[in-house]
Amino acid sequence: METTTTTTNRWVQLLLLVLVISAGNNKNAILVRKVLADSVTLEEAKLLRDEVREMFYHAFDGYMENAFPLDELKPLSCEGVDTLGGYALTLIDSLDMLALLGDKEQFTFSVEWIGKNLRFDINKTVSVFETSIRVLGGLLSAHLIASDYTTGMRIPSYENQLLHLAEDLARRMLPAFDTPTGIPFGSVNLLHGVDEHESKITSTAGGGTLTLEFGVLSHLTNDPSKFAAFYGRTLYDSFSLPVD
After folding, report:
1. Which of 6, 91, 133, 237 could form a disulfide with 182 if both were Cys (CB 3.0 to 4.6 A apart)?
2. pTM tops 0.85, yes or no
3. What mean pLDDT do residues 176-195 have?
């Protein structure tokens, strides 16, 4: 039986391998590869690479076969369930990993399916935090990958569908930022906005971490009046509020 230390070291090695896969050929990649080289042999690295790939496809294929297009797969019953908004959450979550693994066929299918079938004009109340980091972030990163020649995953027929979806989703979340502090409510209805009985309990992480997604969207749409103004105020007010 593996010891706790051995198990921990193995997870560290797997994490380093994922970082190598995602880092590309920049200076960070060279550093990560050096750390990995000091930890495992080339043969061990190949085995770890294959293990990462196998682990991902075990989960992804299970979702596609048993749960798609629902949000997630219930692992014990192998049934699909809508846990966030009913918009194929796991598929969106998996787009960047498909690209990292070089699976252009599945990446292309997923991007095209999302572009044709996903809509956010739905009467669903969703978590602002989870929707931002997983759905908005997933759409934006996949948009950048699908539209860039240098990624090797560019889709010739792609016409910014994911960016348009991301912009629509973000606009539907903006009512959550209409608060005295600028820190958003925890939940928002994508069709009707914030419910009058919505809890006022929130957190700095629930507001501060969203600056990445809304900042990228502001840059890509060249529309700071709609997005940058909100996340800028949120970030500023998060650091300006008194702490008990």
Report:
1. 237
2. no
3. 89
